[in-house]
Design a protein that fits this description.
There is one protein chain. The radius of gyration is 29 Å and the shape is globular. It is of the alpha+beta class. The protein has a seven-stranded mixed sheet with strand order 2-1-5-4-3-6-7, sandwiched between helices. Strands 16-17-13-18 form a four-stranded antiparallel sheet. Strands 9-8-12 form a three-stranded antiparallel sheet, with no helix packed on it. The chain folds into four domains: 179 residues, Nucleotidyltransferase, domain 5; 113 residues, no CATH class; 175 residues, Alpha-Beta Plaits (2-Layer Sandwich), CATH 3.30.70.370; 102 residues, no CATH class.
Length: 632
């Protein structure tokens, strides 16, 4: 039964009702379908026009332009009533705009992503309804809500009500599948985390625009400087004389020094490839990974620097300011579940903001009485590998706060490491000391130790990405044969890690899927898997992903758990703090200045609490800092 709440009028499709009746009905239910219709997709510029709520028996369709929905606040914020939505972040931001904070949700879109992780499947509501309920939704009616200002038609009211029914039917099917695959805790995590991501998207992060413009101008000046260096190199190189321009225009107001005399557009990969092949490079493209092994060449180094400055000048110049809303805040959009369980950010991609603090410091609290408090995990992926492999050296080094990369390098290189020690080497000076923060802060400054440590560090972190000899060779600018030997020596020193990674690879190859650590056990499926008939090229891909996913995915599970704990604490205690960003394993909040020290301690405790489900030893710690601007 459909009940319409709005301006009273005679309609054949439903009864006319009141907001009070809707509240009374919904308060008595344990699960409700919820949906909204809006004038547009951006909550900053658009408004909610319709709210649909109810179950399979009764659906209330509320004209929010005429009716105050705040009486439903208690229902929508209740932790005892499950609200089923599709793409909950979208509806949540419009509800937040109306003073309502959702709790206890089930997102049918996220459920589909959890169940089909790794598969190429459309997670749209229309596709799920068609696939699982065998009902075709009207795309034409759905689009009529955009910019609509008139009274709702009967077809629009029926469409809105049916959404509620479809959501509940889908949720019932998804729940059974989730339970069968033992991913109930994972689904709960994703549902709860979606509200934290919704808060971040709603809150946004403030930008110091004048400071950003200064950086953009500096980047453009540097780009021009690099372009001139490239031009000069071509002019001075006889073998590249064909790229000297013989025809160029001038005018009476232009200085001769302002005229480009090189016929190369450095922003064109095709033209640059032609220059480099003429120069003598045997390459097929000018991508960064291709050019990296040649960076010792002055010409290549200048070009790489040029590309870096060009990206800063374009992506992080005036173009970036298109993402700034009317309140001078930037609001990204998160895709919550990638193949490993990690997230992606777009519009803009905040995960690709240059990591140096020069750019990050342009993001501010937006209020002089508030400051940033940010927290991230210390060597999260290394702690996850140590826990999974149970390698005694790794575990001891992390437990005692030692520099794991140096400890590993000493074992991998043996005599070479010992012979490289300089007078006063801190590694050996403190080799026999126990743990503690003082020990953790000491870093060896021996020149050769630093190089050897960097080599092993690349392997340590590369383990989480299934890195092979070819990639290691590119990273360290060494031959593939040398990289193979280094990896062989590494695994000789740490056989338990080799066995751990090998077992993960074999698990995926034998089953066609891989899981993250307990208790969440996120599953990633491999669509290309065909059992023993899997093509050899796909076997390698599956094996690498099987090594990578449990490490990255367990880290993602941990970060989402931390977001949930932080959000719950803030709201349950009405604490003067907001979550404004998360990048990889870092969570950023702003807090009222007088509460900064207290919040720093609470926040760190919540971050470390979130690790205990996956790493019960308490091995993984968090670094938490107070700052006036966003920092790495």
């Amino acid at each position: 039964m459909i009940k319409f709440v709005g301006n009273p009028r005679l309609v054949d499709c439903c009864e006319v009702s009141t907001i009070d009746e809707a509240v009374a009905y919904c308060e008595s239910k344990s699960i409700l379908g919820v949906d909204t219709e809006t004038t547009g997709l951006n909550f900053m510029e658009s408004e909610m026009t319709m709210l649909q709520i109810g179950d399979e028996d009764v659906q209330f369709v509320i004209d929010t332009r005429a009716v105050n929905i705040l009486p439903l606040k208690k229902v929508l914020e209740s932790k005892h009533i499950t609200k089923v939505l599709h793409n909950v972040k979208f509806d949540y931001k419009f509800l937040l705009k109306n003073g309502i904070r959702l709790n206890n949700v089930w997102d049918t879109m996220l459920a589909s992503q959890v169940l089909n992780c790794g598969k190429q499947v459309s997670h749209s509501l229309s596709n799920l309804v068609s696939t699982h309920l065998h009902i075709e939704m009207s795309k034409e009616i759905r689009t009529t809500f955009i910019g609509y200002t008139g009274e709702f038609t009967e077809s629009q009211i029926v469409y809105g009500a049916k959404d509620v029914e479809y959501l509940l039917n889908l949720q019932a099917l998804q729940t059974k599948y989730i339970e069968d695959l033992d991913m109930v805790m994972l689904m709960q995590l994703e549902n709860d985390a979606s509200l934290a991501y919704g808060d971040i998207e709603f809150n946004g992060i403030a930008l110091d625009i004048p400071r950003w413009n200064e950086l953009a101008l500096d980047a453009e000046k540097s780009r021009v400087k690099m372009e001139i260096k490239l031009d000069d190199f071509v002019k001075d190189k006889q073998s590249l004389s064909q790229f000297n321009s013989t025809h160029f225009q001038t005018d009476m107001f232009m200085e001769d020094t302002d005229i480009r005399k090189i016929d190369v557009k450095w922003t064109s990969p095709k033209q640059v490839l032609n220059v480099f092949t003429t120069y003598g490079l045997d390459i097929e493209d000018v991508n960064a990974n291709t050019l990296l092994p040649f960076r010792k060449d002055e010409f290549i180094d200048i070009y790489i620097k040029y590309k870096e400055q060009a990206k800063l000048s374009t992506s992080y110049g005036d173009k970036f300011l298109q993402n700034v809303d009317s309140d001078n805040r930037v609001r990204t959009s998160f895709k919550q579940i990638l193949n490993t369980g990690r997230i992606a950010s777009s519009g803009p991609n905040m995960q690709q903001i240059p990591a140096n603090n020069k750019y990050r410091n342009c993001f501010i609290s937006g209020d002089n009485d508030w400051v940033f408090v940010s927290s991230d995990y210390s060597s999260q992926e290394l702690a996850i590998i140590a826990t999974g492999s149970k390698d005694p050296v790794w575990l001891k080094a992390l437990e005692e706060g030692k520099d794991l990369h140096s400890v590993c390098a000493a074992l991998v290189y043996g005599d070479k490491w010992r012979d490289a020690a300089e007078v006063g080497c801190s590694y050996y000076a403190y080799a026999n000391l126990g743990g503690g923060t003082e020990r953790a802060q000491l870093k060896c400054k021996c020149k050769q130790h630093k190089k050897l440590r960097t080599n092993v560090k690349s392997i340590n972190f590369g383990l989480a990405y299934g890195m092979g000899p070819m990639k290691l060779a590119d990273t360290l600018l060494i031959s593939e044969k040398a990289a193979e030997k280094l990896i062989k020596d590494y695994f000789k020193a740490f056989p338990s890690i080799e066995n751990f990674l090998s077992s993960l690879g074999q698990y995926g190859l034998h089953r066609g899927y891989i899981k993250t650590y307990a208790p969440y056990r996120r599953m990633r499926w491999f669509p290309e898997w065909r059992g023993y008939e899997t093509p050899q090229k796909d076997k390698g891909k599956i094996e690498r992903a099987s090594k990578n996913t449990p490490i990255q995915g367990s880290g993602a599970d941990m970060c989402k758990s931390a977001l949930v704990l932080v959000r719950d604490y803030i709201y349950e205690n009405d604490y003067p703090a907001k979550i404004v960003m998360t990048v990889h394993d870092q969570i950023d909040t702003i807090v009222r200045t007088d509460k900064a020290e207290e919040w720093c301690s609470i926040f760190q405790g919540l971050m470390e609490q979130s690790t205990l489900e996956i790493i019960p030893s308490g091995l993984l710690k968090a670094d938490t800092n107070i700052s006036h601007t966003w920092e790495k």
